[in-house]
Design brief:
The protein is α/β, with parallel strands linked by helices. It folds into 2 domains: 151 residues, Glycogen Phosphorylase B (Rossmann fold); 167 residues, Rossmann fold (3-Layer(aba) Sandwich). It is 39% helix and 15% strand. It has 14 helices and 12 strands. The strands form 3 sheets. It has a 6-stranded parallel sheet with strand order 9-8-7-10-11-12, with helices on both faces. A 4-stranded parallel sheet has the order 3-4-5-6. The protein has a two-stranded parallel sheet with strand order 1-2. Strand 7, helix 7 and strand 8 form a beta-alpha-beta unit. Helix 7 packs across helix 12 and helix 10 crosses helix 13. It is globular, with a radius of gyration of 21 Å. The two termini are 23 Å apart. The relative contact order is 0.12.
């Protein structure tokens, strides 16, 4: 919206969604159109090109139609080929093919870290001159209201638990945190894990119920409360294109323990406690260190996160799109 006010001659922007989408935000400067009869890959690959025709199609996340030759697409990482164990055979095969084609023929590729840019060049043959890095923002973490009931309902005491937010994807390495628990036996630290429940993950490890809280899905207000009251946030992921959850934690003052792998060295090495995701004792030691940080350290965490602004991401994106529209 700010760009529109400063540049009244900006090119028109239309958001295209499948007809099945019934609810979407109301935008001040953007037009939303429901198009087509289908959804999913059929809509994306077969119907969407008809409605985009000669225009520039910007996709902020996910795929884009192969037959459309004026794509600007955001590819967050190369996980489907670099860390395939986290995806089904059908899913990773399709996106490996799709990403190779898009990286070769798209007008421009956007990605979220210099690490991811190097991965897209390595695995998909992306052109470095046509690949732009735009870091993500953090201020969205400050918007939800707090919901303190999440603590009482799960018997979590402020600053007496560590938090992990993640999915059942093996790359998130929830198992690594569970293996670190015996090394924390004398600390009385509780563990709260937020994200979709998966008995296949938790059932493999003998975990005392009084130490671990499997919270399942939590909403944004509950998540803010969990971040702000955690002794530290733990993110021992094996592969990340950026690492948004640690940034959200830092934005709310929470110290972060992150794996010393992939993009996380690039983004967080100056502020976070870096651990070896394959070493349970190192994960535990970093948790103990992070749990002892001072109030001043929590202030520094917030200050660090303020340098990651969605407005900067939007400005870089808009300048690129508006420049390409004049070519």
């Amino acid at each position: 919206m700010l760009l529109a006010e400063s540049a009244p001659t900006w090119p028109p922007v239309e958001i295209l969604v499948p007809s099945s989408v019934k609810i979407f935000p109301k935008y001040r400067y953007l037009t939303v159109s429901r198009v087509g009869r289908f959804s999913g890959q059929v809509w994306e690959q077969l119907e969407l090109p008809f409605y985009t025709k000669g225009g520039i199609l910007f996709t902020p996340c996910g795929g884009a139609p192969i037959v459309h030759r004026r794509n600007v697409i955001t590819i967050h990482d190369a996980a489907v080929i670099a860390a395939p164990q986290g995806y089904s055979l059908a899913f990773r095969t399709w996106y490996q093919i799709l990403n190779r084609v898009l990286c070769r023929f798209a007008l421009h590729i956007m990605t979220v870290s210099h690490f991811s840019k190097s991965e897209l060049i390595k695995w998909y043959g992306a052109d470095p001159q046509k690949t732009t890095v735009t870091y993500l923002g953090s201020e969205h973490a400050l918007r939800p209201n707090r919901e303190p009931r999440i603590l009482a309902e799960n018997q979590l005491s402020p600053f007496q638990y560590v938090l992990l937010v993640g999915s059942k994807n093996p790359n998130k390495n929830i198992a690594g945190l569970l293996r670190a628990l015996p090394c924390l036996a004398g600390s009385h630290i509780q563990v709260a894990i937020a994200g979709p429940r998966d008995t296949k993950v938790f059932g493999k490890y003998r975990v005392a119920n009084d130490r671990v809280r499997d919270l399942g899905y939590v909403d944004d207000s509950e998540l803010r409360t969990l971040y702000e009251n955690a002794a530290c946030f733990v993110f021992p992921s094996f592969y990340e294109g950026f690492g948004l959850p640690p940034l959200e934690a830092l934005a709310l003052g929470c110290p972060a323990v992150v794996a010393n792998t992939t993009s996380m060295r690039e983004i967080f090495s100056s502020i976070a406690f870096m651990c070896d995701p394959n070493d349970p004792s190192d994960i535990a030691n970093k948790i103990l260190e992070a749990s002892k940080v001072t109030k001043e350290s929590r202030t520094r965490n917030r200050e660090f996160a303020t340098s990651f602004r969605w407005a900067d991401c939007a400005k870089t994106t808009w300048e690129l799109l508006s420049g390409l529209s004049r070519v």
